[in-house]
């Protein structure tokens, strides 16, 4: 494998009511909405991007929220847990914070000495907050809802549930350039680059579990980082040469993407890092207005009429957040 990813780019999930989704991720988890746009393949629904202040790759959890979406089923063939990184000694604060919000949690210490708090979002999506013992140097989005000393630093890892480990492990190592890190029971950990938060994937082997059903409260796909278009094109050619069924390169406005499935069934994406979310609105205004790609802009009036109204807190603006913290 000549090309290797440096870590996670984003995770995309399917949610329910978009207002409830935004309230939870902005106010309860303290993330920033860095882009309000639509699903380019189905512009009748939003595509909401949550992350750090600028939406750097590796900080992003995104959603396609449909108000009447049926509930999915977590199981083999999908990413079943999305984990965020928080500072050491912050799990206790988060446990109380989530309890105050009426959210049940489960706290464990893993064999890698990572303090972990597991819970679900309002649509049943399985989430975790993980405190890596060596910490995480990434800067958080500093919001009045969650103080900076406890705030989420970005993605920590994802867990892929599979019936059989061999083919998935081979795909991660041979086609994504990940390195086997450790195994604890039926859980195998792989890491990109130097490892650590944002560069980890766990493979959970559950041969007797049912297959998952991708719908409300489940992950749609997991995206990995690639620096630029040239590297992505070379990577696609390499994957195709190995017999992997890969999509054409798709313009997602804020990055370019290719998609393919790992043998266990999870949809994977390779997304470029070099565009970003400030190409169509300034940093201070990220997420505040509905943004459409040029090919959908002529249908703006029709698209906006079909979307439910979305009210965002003023604290999504860094200037307002700074003033409220003062």
From TrEMBL:
It comes from the Bacteria. The keyword Oxidoreductase applies. GO terms for molecular function: dioxygenase activity. Signal peptide: none annotated. InterPro entries: Extradiol_RC_dioxygenase, Glyas_Bleomycin-R_OHBP_Dase, Glyas_Fos-R_dOase_dom, VOC_core. It holds the Pfam family Glyoxalase. Keywords: Dioxygenase, Oxidoreductase. This is Ring-cleaving dioxygenase.
């Amino acid at each position: 494998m000549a090309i290797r990813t440096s870590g996670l780019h984003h995770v995309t999930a399917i949610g329910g009511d978009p207002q409830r989704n935004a309230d939870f991720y902005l106010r309860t988890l303290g993330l920033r909405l860095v882009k309000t746009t639509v699903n380019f393949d189905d512009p009748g629904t939003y595509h909401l991007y949550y992350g750090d202040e600028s939406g750097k790759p590796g900080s992003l959890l995104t959603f396609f929220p449909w108000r009447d979406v049926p509930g999915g089923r977590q199981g083999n063939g999908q990413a079943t847990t999305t984990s965020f990184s928080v500072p050491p000694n912050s799990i206790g604060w988060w446990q109380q914070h989530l309890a105050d919000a009426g959210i049940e949690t489960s706290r464990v210490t893993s064999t890698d000495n990572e303090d972990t708090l597991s819970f679900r979002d309002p649509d049943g999506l399985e989430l975790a907050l993980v405190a890596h013992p060596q910490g995480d140097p990434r800067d958080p989005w500093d919001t009045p809802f969650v103080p900076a000393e406890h705030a989420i630093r970005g993605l920590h890892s994802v867990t892929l549930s599979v019936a059989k480990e061999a083919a998935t492990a081979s795909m991660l190592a041979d086609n994504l350039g990940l390195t086997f890190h450790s195994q604890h029971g039926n859980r195998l950990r792989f890491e990109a680059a130097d490892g650590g938060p944002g560069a980890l994937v766990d493979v959970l082997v559950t041969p007797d579990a049912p297959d998952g059903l991708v719908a409300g409260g489940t992950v749609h796909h997991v995206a990995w980082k690639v620096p630029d278009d040239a590297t992505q094109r070379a990577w696609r050619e390499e994957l195709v040469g190995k017999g992997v069924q890969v999509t054409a390169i798709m313009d997602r406005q804020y990055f370019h993407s290719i998609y393919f499935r790992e043998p266990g069934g999870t949809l994977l994406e390779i997304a470029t890092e070099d565009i970003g979310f400030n190409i169509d609105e300034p940093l201070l205004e990220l997420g505040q207005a509905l943004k459409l790609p040029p090919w959908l802009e002529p249908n703006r009036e029709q698209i906006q009429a079909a979307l439910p109204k979305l009210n965002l807190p003023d604290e999504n603006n860094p200037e307002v957040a700074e003033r409220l913290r003062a």
